[in-house]
């Protein structure tokens, strides 16, 4: 268990529900480590560009699920990243995709960071995208 530290972003209740919906949609079946890594990417994107959640969704083109589908495991994963400041890895990452579902040459041209479960994670090189 990591010690608590400030994540650098304090979620409102509405933002928390939105982030939980993104993590559920993108990594609900990936286990805690994969869920936390997606949450960490969202946090990094918010901090990188000083985005609101709505700006993040639009500019990073992420998908959301209905809130009724969000599991306690996902809620806990989001809380660990945003409330406790926990990180899966120390390297920065703000992008991810699942190569089993889609091919993305664009993602593969970014700075590769790590693979967790079925997702590959990256740090965006070209700031013009977001």
Mean pLDDT: 92
Quantity of strands, as a count = 3
Largest sheet, if any?
Answer: 3 strands, antiparallel
Q: What distance lies between the first and last C-alpha atoms, to the nearest angstrom?
A: 33 Å
Low-confidence stretches: none
Please tally the helical runs, counting DSSP H or I stretches of 4 or more residues: 5
Q: Report the structural category.
A: mainly alpha
Global shape: globular
Going across the major beta sheet, what is the strand order? 1-3-2
Task: Please render the helix and strand layout as text.
Elements: H1 13-27, H2 31-49, H3 53-60, H4 72-82, E1 95-97, H5 105-108, E2 111-116, E3 119-123
Antiparallel strand pairs: 1-3, 2-3
Helix pairs in contact: 1-2, 2-4
């Amino acid at each position: 268990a990591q010690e608590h530290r400030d994540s650098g972003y304090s979620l409102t209740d509405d933002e928390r529900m939105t982030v939980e919906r993104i993590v559920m949609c993108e990594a609900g079946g990936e286990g805690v480590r994969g869920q936390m890594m997606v949450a960490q990417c969202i946090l990094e994107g918010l901090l990188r560009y000083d985005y609101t959640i709505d700006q993040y969704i639009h500019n990073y083109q992420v998908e959301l699920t209905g809130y009724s589908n969000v599991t306690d495991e996902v809620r806990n994963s989001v809380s660990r990243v945003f409330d406790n400041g926990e990180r899966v890895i120390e390297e920065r990452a703000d992008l991810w995709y699942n190569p089993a579902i889609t091919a993305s040459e664009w993602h593969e041209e970014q700075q590769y960071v790590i693979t967790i479960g079925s997702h590959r994670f990256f740090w965006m090189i070209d700031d013009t995208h977001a």
